[in-house]
Amino acid sequence: MNKILNVITKPFRRLFSFFGAYGNRAGRVRFHVLLVFVLAIIAGSFDYSRPWNKSADFINLQKNKVQFVNKIPNIPQFTQQFPFRLGLDLLGGTHLVYEADLSQINQDDYSSSMDGVRDVIERRVNLFGVTEPLVQVNKVGNHYRLIVELAGIKDVNQAIKMIGETPMLQFKTEQATAERDRILAKYLTADEVEQFKDEICLNGQATSAFLVSYGEDPCYAGTELTGKYLDNAETVFDQNTGVPQVSLQFNDEGAQIFQIITKINTGKTVAIYLDGLPISMPRVQEEIIGGKAQITGKFTTQEVKELVQRLNAGALPVPITLVNQQTVGASLGNDSLQKSLRAGLYGLLAVAIFMILYYRLPGLLSVVALGIYTVITLAIFKLGSVTMTLAGIAGFILSVGMAVDANVLVFERIKEEFKAGRGYAGAVEEGFWRAWLSIRDSNASSLITCVILFWIGTSIVKGFALTLGIGILVSMFSAIVVTRSLLKIFIGTRVENWRFLFNAPKK
């Protein structure tokens, strides 16, 4: 029995022996190094999960063959749902620039009008299943422009048509029960029809899901009343309860059509559709005369404002004109990606060779720290859904250079402390402290520049600023925490007396 206990506890005793008592400095340093490497392994496996997943599959398979051991939970796998998000210049697609005509809009309404245009365009491109479309408003002087990037869309004419068509605003009435059941029966089993027929038509999200899946509306039938008859929609509040509501105003022709619809459908639902999908399903309380209506419900003020914006944006709030268009092929984007990665790899290799040859052991440790820096930064890019463009990759590569620069400052300071007669422990501590001030100031100024570029720059410049900023923050962690811990692990060992490993003068 004692032998079995010794075998089981031996790895733990070895581990605790390696760390020593955590209260002493050597134990703390070794523990910190272990944490850093564990973090690096997790980040690296998240960046490129195939080796981890294959190893986990193999171990889990062997484990499950052994009795008793198979009760131990399986090693988890990293999900494949977090791929690197590639920009238009790497994935290929269409880049469109529109200029808005705001001549008929009050200056105070410029911002809200452009937000309405952006919302309309986003809805339209999302209906086409475009992966991660980019739609943003850009102001250049007194000109407002709308930038649309559609990754994966190679047909520029299709993209222009997609953007240029005016969204359809429709008012629909409840479908006849027999027609509803007939449409549902085309796509669902008899049991599913019986179970879901009411839920599909009472829940706007369920109606939308059915429409997207099958392209046919079982719940509501179209009417003559469309967005072309709507004059205006605005936010109002109930005078008695203060509850936010949506006020609709139709033109004269629309008022007559709306009066007929509400008279026939009193007590029933009249659904409001935008771009073929329901956005509101109010119940008609009474016949409405005069072309005015109110949409009531359990809306928050923000929801009402968004609904008003959508209704007013049924037709674009302002005219837009296409001023620039570009198409990037997938092969060209892939070629750019391969060249960028190759350039970064060659640069990283050259830096690693220089650091090892010139700084020797500290240089080797800095290369290890640089590898840890790389996997952590890439993991942050994945988790944060950072769009990787050529400019973004350039920012990342530049941040690698800044990470190396921080290590160079530290190592030169350590060499100066060696020359001043300090021992290894004192030289490392003092060298890091003296170098930290320079590292902090230089990185702070670089971060301020990144913030300014991100705030006022175009999408390309923003990508560069974002990746550079993230890289700078991680590089500070890499230089001050990772490299420092790796150097401190040799304190109290024979290595600290081998000054030639540090390219420093002998004692």
From TrEMBL:
Keywords, ordered alphabetically: Cell membrane, Membrane, Protein transport, Translocation, Transmembrane, Transmembrane helix, Transport
Annotated ranges, domain Protein translocase subunit SecDF P1: 114-174
Entry-linked InterPro entries: Acrflvin-R, SecD, SecD/SecF_arch_bac, SecD/SecF_CS, SecD_1st, SecD_SecF_C, SecD_SecF_C_bact, SecDF_P1_head
Compartments (UniProt record): Cell membrane
Any one of the GO BP annotations: protein transport by the Sec complex
Keyword Aminoacyl-tRNA synthetase: no
Gene Ontology CC, one term: plasma membrane
Keyword Membrane attached: yes
Membrane topology: Multi-pass membrane protein
Highest taxon above the source species: Bacteria
Domain annotation SecDF P1 head subdomain: ranges: 223-318
Protein export membrane protein SecD/SecF C-terminal domain ranges (all copies): 321-489
Transmembrane segments: 29-46, 343-359, 364-384, 390-411, 444-461, 467-487
Location, primary (coarse class): membrane
MF terms (GO), sorted A to Z: protein-transporting ATPase activity
Function field: Part of the Sec protein translocase complex. Interacts with the SecYEG preprotein conducting channel. SecDF uses the proton motive force (PMF) to complete protein translocation after the ATP-dependent function of SecA.
Similarity field: Belongs to the SecD/SecF family. SecD subfamily.
Subunit structure: Forms a complex with SecF. Part of the essential Sec protein translocation apparatus which comprises SecA, SecYEG and auxiliary proteins SecDF. Other proteins may also be involved.
Descriptive protein name: Protein translocase subunit SecD
Organism: Candidatus Portnoybacteria bacterium CG10_big_fil_rev_8_21_14_0_10_36_7
